[in-house]
Design a protein that fits this description.
There is one protein chain. The protein is an alpha/beta fold. The chain has two domains: 146 residues, Aspartate Aminotransferase, domain 1; 220 residues, Aspartate Aminotransferase, domain 2 (3-Layer(aba) Sandwich). The protein is built from 14 helices and 13 strands. A hairpin with a 7-residue loop joins strand 9 and strand 10. The relative contact order is 0.17. The chain binds 4'-deoxy-4'-aminopyridoxal-5'-phosphate. InterPro entries: Aminotransferase_I/II_large, AspAT/PAT-like, NHTrfase_class1_PyrdxlP-BS, PyrdxlP-dep_Trfase, PyrdxlP-dep_Trfase_major.
Length: 391
Amino acid sequence: MKLAERIGAITGGGSDGWEIYYRTRDLLAAGVPVLNLTIGEHDVRTDPAILAAMDQSARAGNTGYSFGPGKQELRAAIAERVAAQTGVATTWENVIVTPGGQGGLFAAHMALCDPGDRALYIDPYYATYPGTIRATGAVDVPVPTRSRDAFQPTADVLAAHAPGARSLLINTPNNPTGVVWSRDTLETVAQVCRDHDLWLISDEVYDSQIWDGAHLSPRALPGMAERTLVIGSMSKSHAMTGSRLGWVIAPPEVIRAIAVLATNTTYGVPAFIQDAALFALRQGADFEAAVAEPFRRRRSLARAVLDRQQAVRLIPSSGAMYLMLDIRATGLSGAAFAERLLEQERIAVMPGESFGTAAAGHVRVAMTIEDRAFVTALERLCAFAAQRQAA
Ligand code: PMP
């Protein structure tokens, strides 16, 4: 029997770029010790107090069908967080609760793009972006960036890709680069969106993980609130990756359109998870800062190690749980470097090539293991790179 072409087109049938990750998982399962810097997930679990709120809600009977767009109280709490963080007036009518940020990314493209529409995204990118866009029937178009620009898009490249496109997906703080885009970059993005009448989809799931300065949402820039959809999530800010609770912020008519999609696809997010999320949001910004703290600390530890050597170059990173390292001085591709590092040193990092073509010759390091092991892993990675450079 024949499957739909659309489903095969999601990955294009090629490699999904996660070979190192799968191999690491197999090695760990076989009892081989590997320092695993591939995973974009906290090394702590969801806080027990949040789990208690979840348990209490479920036991109180909140286990039936939940209302599609999310509980109004939760939508209001999310709106309040967004308004406080960005200064843009936001009410519950601007919010829909989705199964994770990933559910929001899919819903946003479904709502904005018709089959065949060109949907832009920035390379390097979070691994699911092209597949998510293709799953909607839109045509995924990567917009390249350069290492020397800290992988931030420039006005000319954006303007060259914008004509005829429907939407632009951006992500800051960025996965995989750890870069927090500058105000200049975001103003350029906003200008291009206004000039070419593009929808902007702004993935801000790392908005609580910024080490220098404050988060700037492009929705706050002039003329942008009416054309911007912000993707948010409890996954990173509250260490709730498994709870699958995210959201889309958008003009009310877009939210209503996504609500129709939700009724006919996900049927909403479980009510006891929504109650846990509401409890978690009420813990305030200090709680979010505490969840982010290990990454802030490890970024400093990493800088101390990397400042002492010349074989690898750190892309100036100031957010999210990642560092991007330029390893081109070793003469290896990111993929070859990652493979050899795993074989010889039992350290797993993601090749830059797994996130598009722009980050070739780089590797992504997730700061998601305990401090001492993290420092050891980086020291050994640098020594390995220095040996390769000398060879
Ligand atoms: N966007 C980015 C940039 C991510 O890194 C992730 C998860 N790694 C997501 C969206 C999706 O996260 P979730 O669905 O758990 O909210």
